[in-house]
């Protein structure tokens, strides 16, 4: 039995949506950030970084949302959440998964937690503003690459679109939210319309505005 350790709206949303898309049975285990449960001794045995999510798959204990997502595409190829191995399309899929985790996802850390990046708290607002400006540029590049395509890989839906949806959602409180870019808004709407995504959002108690 698979088990996903999650907190509503966190990076765990990506593997949660994927598991719903796959249709496999799994346990969903809340890590209560309100009680700092991600720093508990029990949870740190699963992820010594004290971050969410963790996926337990038999004897495998895996952290890092992107790694979990790639594992799930390999574990359940019949779900079609990634192109076939060894193809140019698979390489494009890897490109997007690595880009999304290394670039906008990483930058959000400075946007949401600017105090972690300064020794003087007075500098935190400037760090947040700079992170927001960098995120704007990142989403502009993603928009340019997406163009008029339906999905990041063209006409093929993949886990990369779920990843981008989550990152668009995270930016809903920014001065210029990613949803303000027309083609990103349209992609997010297409993802939101998927029944598996609706189920994941409902189970996590995430209400409108979603993004």
UniProtKB/TrEMBL annotation:
It comes from the Bacteria. InterPro entries: Glutathione-S-Trfase_C-like (IPR010987), Glutathione-S-Trfase_C_sf (IPR036282), Glutathione_S-Trfase (IPR040079), Glutathione_S-Trfase_N (IPR004045), GST_C (IPR004046), Thioredoxin-like_sf (IPR036249). Residues 1-80 form the GST N-terminal domain. Residues 86-210 form the GST C-terminal domain. Belongs to the GST superfamily. This is Glutathione S-transferase.
């Amino acid at each position: 039995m698979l088990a996903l350790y999650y907190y509503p709206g966190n990076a765990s949303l990506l593997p949660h949506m994927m598991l719903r898309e796959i249709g496999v049975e799994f346990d969903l285990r809340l890590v209560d950030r309100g009680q700092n449960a991600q720093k508990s001794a029990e949870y740190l045995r699963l992820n010594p970084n004290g971050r969410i999510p963790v996926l337990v798959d038999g004897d495998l204990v895996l952290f890092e949302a992107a790694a979990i997502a790639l594992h799930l595409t390999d574990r359940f190829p019949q779900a079609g959440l990634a192109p076939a191995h060894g193809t140019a399309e698979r390489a494009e899929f890897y490109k997007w998964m690595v880009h999304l985790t290394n670039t906008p996802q990483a930058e959000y850390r400075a946007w949401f937690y600017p105090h972690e990046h300064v020794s003087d708290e007075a500098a935190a607002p400037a760090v947040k503003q700079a992170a927001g400006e960098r995120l704007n540029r990142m989403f502009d590049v993603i928009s340019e690459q997406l163009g008029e395509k339906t999905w990041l890989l063209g006409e093929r839906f993949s886990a990369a679109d779920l990843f981008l949806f989550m990152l668009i959602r995270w930016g809903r409180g920014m001065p210029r939210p990613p949803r303000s870019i027309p083609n990103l808004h349209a992609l997010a709407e297409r993802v939101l319309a998927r029944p598996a995504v609706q189920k994941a959002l409902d189970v996590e108690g995430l209400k409108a505005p979603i993004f």
